[in-house]
């Protein structure tokens, strides 16, 4: 979709100015929460709860240090006895009469999000590519019913499916495992992956494959050597959509993971409880979690419409 | 949008001279490839979606409790359903859900449609600002819910401060007040998902050929008539699609609201999914919760059917 279609029926210059003012105004208001959360991640805890809210403040990395470490409060005498701080973050923590006792669980949770996100994305795109090609090119009995069935799995309320999946995973020993979450997210993302990729395959002219078959390729070779290279852009866009979904998912993660495989979304709120309302640390975790998605959104802006309509609307 | 012609890959009749019978193609037959390519996806969906669904239906007729696997399981027939539909609480949860769905849709359609019409004026820089507006809908709803609790803090939050600055009402406790909490979740959902409606309306606007407007101009139609007779009918399918999809999603709403209000204060924002989670994973009334789940399924599936029909209409 091109965001600026050229219209013969053009708005008047004055109309354009009014429209620009209103849209930019809305965009700025919409940005306030995001800008605020990024700013808060660079505040000190006292600054984060000052009233009126501080727009100008002394930036500090305390939030990030608190996010990645566990600390304990000590007497000034004891801290003196430890000798000079070894690193900048040691020094930062000691200003608050604390010492760092170890790493926090955040890095591990973040890595879980990465592992489960990439694992499930790879599987969903792999299976989706095969299915999309078959649906696009072959006579499949009950094709429309199958496609509807695949899409309908997307509609299921996660909390409702979570009950039996929890029981099933308990039997299979998959609760709180990376494999369990990867399989689950793959299943949830398959609908998006098949529908989106089918749209991309539909756009590739059949003549290429037909020519390849006439030249003596098998059907399978024609798929691998002719169609797949042309699907590259579509596969990349689909993969990013699947990745964002897995990255953002919360309900299943909350109900089916508790430690080993817990991802960041259910963990970030826990930080609030741990640090006694340590808002900068929460904001730091949130910022680190949201930034990749914002980057991908900007990269994908032309494909967003396609992604949110399962490939139906393509401009 | 191409119409699917369902002929399997065959060399077109135009090149009949070169055509060979399909069997002459070496390697796997088409039917085999189709089966091999589609089967894994279907099998995975059957295992992780359909099998659990059937299990839920079975459990909904029993008094099974997931935290007591050793206990004897009794067949209750439709007792769980009767208890559900007879319970006042369930209706209040559904009411909270309805309030959330109806208001988010109304407000988002109003703002989203307005924004789309404005962006469609193609002022300089429109694409950049559109992209910025789209960012919130790609974020993790749970994380959004988490950081809005900070923005909503009555004494220190920026939301309360801005509202106070313009109205002088003093600090506002959006999450803690029974009156305001239902609106707190509507505001966050609107912030997040208005761009979704806007994007689909934009697609609808771009699908309207210019000659219609030129014809309207020739016929001396005013701006209001033009909107009512040309623009609106043309974007309605897109708008329907957006409202249906977001409506279904908000009917199932869980993540953002759990993190923002966790159903409180009291149970003013306890939406259907949140209550379902409480019954299933806190009270461990698996059978009862499964019955609730089945009722949600049926509702969503019905709406989903309509959604797919709308999707196919927009495709044409």
From TrEMBL, chain A:
Topology of this chain in the membrane: Multi-pass membrane protein
Cell location: Cell membrane
Main location: membrane
Keywords attached to this entry: Cell membrane, Membrane, Transmembrane, Transmembrane helix, Transport
Gene3D superfamilies in the record: MetI-like
Any one GO cellular component localisation term in the record: plasma membrane
Superkingdom field: Bacteria
Protein's name according to its UniProt entry: Sugar ABC transporter permease
SUPFAM superfamilies: MetI-like
Membrane spanning stretches: 17-39, 114-134, 146-167, 179-197, 235-259, 279-300
Biological processes annotated in GO: transmembrane transport
Domain ABC transmembrane type-1: 110-300
PROSITE patterns (alphabetical): ABC_TM1
Record family assignment: Belongs to the binding-protein-dependent transport system permease family.
Organism, scientific name: Acuticoccus sediminis
Pfam families documented for this protein: BPD_transp_1
Lineage: Bacteria, Pseudomonadati, Pseudomonadota, Alphaproteobacteria, Hyphomicrobiales
From TrEMBL, chain B:
Cellular component annotations (GO), alphabetically ordered: plasma membrane
Domain ABC transmembrane type-1: 94-307
Keywords: Membrane, Transmembrane, Transmembrane helix, Transport
Main location: membrane
Superkingdom in the source lineage: Bacteria
InterPro entries from the UniProt entry: MalF_N, MetI-like, MetI-like_sf, Sugar_ABC_transporter
Membrane protein topology class: Multi-pass membrane protein
CDD domains: TM_PBP2
Transmembrane regions listed in the UniProt entry: 32-55, 100-119, 131-152, 158-176, 183-206, 226-245, 287-308
GO biological process, one term: transmembrane transport
Localization, UniProt: Cell membrane
Family membership noted in the UniProt record: Belongs to the binding-protein-dependent transport system permease family.
Name listed for the protein in its UniProt record: ABC transporter permease
């Amino acid at each position: 979709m091109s965001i600026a279609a050229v219209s013969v029926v053009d708005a008047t210059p004055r109309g354009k100015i009014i429209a620009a003012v209103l849209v930019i105004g809305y965009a700025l208001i919409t940005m306030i929460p995001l800008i605020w959360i990024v700013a808060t991640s660079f505040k000190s805890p006292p600054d984060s709860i000052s009233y009126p809210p501080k727009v100008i403040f002394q930036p500090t990395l305390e939030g990030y240090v608190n996010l990645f470490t566990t600390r304990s409060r000590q007497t000034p005498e004891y801290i003196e006895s430890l000798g000079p701080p070894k690193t900048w973050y040691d020094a930062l923590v000691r200003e608050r009469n604390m010492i760092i006792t170890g790493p926090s669980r955040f890095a591990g949770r973040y890595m879980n999000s990465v592992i489960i996100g990439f694992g499930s994305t790879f599987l969903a795109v792999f299976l989706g590519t095969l299915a999309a090609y078959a649906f696009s090119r072959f006579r499949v009995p009950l094709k429309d019913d199958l496609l509807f069935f695949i899409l309908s799995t997307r509609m299921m309320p996660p909390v409702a499916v979570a009950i039996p999946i929890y029981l099933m995973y308990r039997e299979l020993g998959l609760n709180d495992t990376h494999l369990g979450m990867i399989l689950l997210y793959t299943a949830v993302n398959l609908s998006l992956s098949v529908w989106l990729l089918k749209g991309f395959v539909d756009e590739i002219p059949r003549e290429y494959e037909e020519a390849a078959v006439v030249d003596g390729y098998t059907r399978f070779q024609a798929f691998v050597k002719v169609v797949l290279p042309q699907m590259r852009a579509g596969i990349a866009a689909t993969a990013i959509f699947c990745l964002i979904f897995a990255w953002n998912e919360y309900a299943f993660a909350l109900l089916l993971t508790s430690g080993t495989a817990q991802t960041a979304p259910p963990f970030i709120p826990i930080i609030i409880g741990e640090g006694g309302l340590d808002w900068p640390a929460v904001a730091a975790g949130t910022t680190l979690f949201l930034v990749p998605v914002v980057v991908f959104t900007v990269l994908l802006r032309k494909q967003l419409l396609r992604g949110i309509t399962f490939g139906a609307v393509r401009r | 949008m191409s119409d699917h012609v369902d002929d399997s890959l065959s060399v077109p009749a135009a090149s009949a001279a070169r055509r060979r019978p399909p069997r002459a193609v070496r390697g796997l037959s088409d039917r085999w490839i189709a089966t091999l390519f589609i089967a894994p996806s279907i099998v995975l969906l059957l295992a992780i979606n359909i099998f659990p669904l059937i299990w839920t239906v079975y459990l909904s007729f029993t008094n099974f409790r997931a935290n007591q696997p050793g206990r004897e399981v009794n067949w209750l027939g439709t007792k769980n359903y009767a208890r559900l539909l007879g319970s006042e609480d369930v209706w209040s949860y559904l009411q909270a859900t309805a309030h959330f769905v109806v208001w988010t849709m109304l407000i988002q359609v109003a703002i989203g449609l307005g924004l789309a019409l404005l962006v469609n004026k193609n002022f300089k820089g429109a694409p950049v600002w559109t992209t910025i507006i789209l960012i919130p809908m790609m974020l993790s709803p749970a994380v959004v819910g988490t950081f809005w609790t900070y923005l909503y803090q009555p004494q220190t939050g920026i939301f309360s401060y801005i509202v106070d600055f313009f109205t002088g009402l003093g600090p506002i406790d959006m999450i803690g007040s029974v009156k305001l909490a239902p609106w707190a979740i509507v505001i966050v959902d609107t912030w997040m998902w208005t761009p979704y409606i806007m994007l689909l309306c934009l697609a609808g606007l771009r699908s309207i050929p210019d000659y219609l407007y030129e014809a309207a101009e020739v016929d001396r139609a005013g701006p209001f008539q033009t909107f009512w007779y040309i623009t609106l009918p043309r974007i309605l399918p897109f708008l329907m699609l957006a409202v249906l999809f977001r409506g279904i999603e908000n009917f199932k709403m869980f993540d953002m609201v759990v993190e923002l209000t966790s159903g409180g204060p009291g149970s003013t924002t306890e939406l259907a999914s949140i209550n379902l989670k409480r019954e299933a994973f806190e009270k461990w009334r698996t059978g009862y919760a499964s019955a609730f789940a089945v009722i949600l399924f049926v509702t969503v599936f019905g709406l989903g059917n309509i959604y797919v029909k709308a999707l196919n209409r927009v495709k044409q």
